[in-house]
Amino acid sequence: MEESELTRTRKEKISALRAAGIDPYPNGVRVDNTSAELRARFGALDNEALGGIKDTFSLAGRLMAVRNFGKASFISIQDRKGRLQGFIQKKTLPEADYDLFRRLDVGDIIYIAGRIFKTKTGELTIEAGRLRLLAKALRPLPEKWHGLTDVETRYRRRHLDLIMNPDVRETFHRRSRIIKLIRDFMDSRDFLEVETPMMQPRAGGAAAKPFKTFHNTLGMDLYLRIAPELYLKRLVTGGLERVYEINRNFRNEGISTFHNPEFTMMEFYLAYATYEDLMQFTEELFLFLAENLFGGPRFVYQGTEIDLTPPWRRTTVREAVERHLGIAPGTLDDRGRLLALAADMGLEPQENTAAGRILMTIFEEKVEKELIQPTFVTQYPVEVSPLSRRNPRNPDFTDRFELYVHGREIANAFSELNDPEDQRERFLMQLREREAGDEEAHVMDEDYVQTLESAMPPTAGEGIGIDRLVMLLTNSASIRDVILFPQLRIRDEL
């Protein structure tokens, strides 16, 4: 039978229910218990002890299975906390309730109330003394959801994914817990959680292509934020010396197993600190998460044990490239040899490409995927770090790190540039790159420069990709597995 025929059959059932005076979508039902609560209270008791309990209990959820045995049936009810078995028999139900039960379908939302007992196999069960239909399902549940070959269907029909797959529900419960733990950690260290604009007159704070919109009343273009950085640093300048925001960012870029155009990041700023202080801070945060989630610093991600025991490995960009590619120290200081090396790798940089960008192209293409255990990569070229403080010993590089785990960037941090003249020059450099065709280069933000002219204290800041962090801590292979509604191409579906 085609699904459309099943749907028509269920619509006919709804008409019959209404003709019998039964509302298929009633409201106002009060539910006293959850499946987990009942299991916690009574799961360890035997039938003799349960027989002394005269109270009745109520449960509501989705009807997931029915096993009929003549005048008695066992059903499976799924609520937000799990599943519990129900027992239906004609002699203990009012006639109208039993007649209603015979009209139910798997997928319907129901209410059941009665006493608690255990079956001969020891299964905790609620025996129905009352039964109500709360919402009639027109579409049947997938029969073999785990066997679907089109994984995109799970993302497009996330409600079905959540109904059928307990592991998926657990992933999003854990995601919520991770974010709460992050807030607990930040709050315990005297950080203030803030909110900054999601629509901004300039796209700043990161090198990325923005989404653009237009505000009719103001008569001006606005951009969905690619990062909250410049606004958060305005707050630091204003005296909010420890701030953080768990925010949604939008970047008009590609989609992959670890990229989504709309993503969640935590960005925070700490006055009177350096990027080196944030390395220790990050170790403490990640260790705090692991201990609360796993009971210790070690866990398995995609078959590999990850060890978050501090201190983590530290290496500069140049050291990482030299070591992983077997290049003699000093080779990367010569721009001509750097160009030749990139060309030999098939990376084809332009002749006028800055040396720092060539170095980063080699690193990103050949090295970062090899960084499995947590690694702080430091000393990024100034050309790719327009908001970072220059390193005092080598001004061609900045006091910046990126954290890599299992070959992916998880966090990005640096000692903030607070010299307004240097910042203006960096913006001008970015403008020149933009004029040369780089759509991701920063635009001039004179208002931000004026903010720095009011004196921002020495500050360190960091952004942590929440989605990628959740991937790591839930053993999820794709970012789509940790975002409830990932971006997908529209297609016509029933």
Residue-averaged pLDDT: 93
Query: Roughly what percent helix?
Result: 25-40%
What is the tally of beta strands? 18
By CATH, the architecture of the largest domain is named: 2-Layer Sandwich
Q: Categorize the overall geometry.
A: elongated
Rounded to the nearest angstrom, the radius of gyration is 29 Å
**Number of structurally distinct domains:** 2
CATH class of the largest domain: Alpha Beta
Short description:
The chain is built from 15 helices and 18 strands. The chain has helices at 3-19, 35-42, 47-51, 95-101, 151-156, 158-164, 166-188, 229-237, 275-294, 317-325, 335-344, 355-366, 420-435, 446-453, 466-473, and strands at residues 57-69, 72-79, 82-89, 109-118, 124-135, 192-193, 199-200, 212-215, 220-224, 242-250, 262-271, 298-301, 304-307, 313-316, 375-381, 397-405, 408-415, 459-465.
Structure in words:
- By secondary structure, the protein is an alpha+beta fold.
- The chain has two domains: 3-141, OB fold (Dihydrolipoamide Acetyltransferase, E2P); 164-312 and 373-481, Bira Bifunctional Protein, Domain 2 (BirA Bifunctional Protein, domain 2), CATH 3.30.930.10.
- It contains 15 helices and 18 strands.
- Strands 6-10-11-18-17-16-15-14 form an eight-stranded mixed sheet, sandwiched between helices.
- Strand 1 (57-69) and strand 2 form a beta hairpin.
- The model has no long low-confidence stretch (mean pLDDT 93).
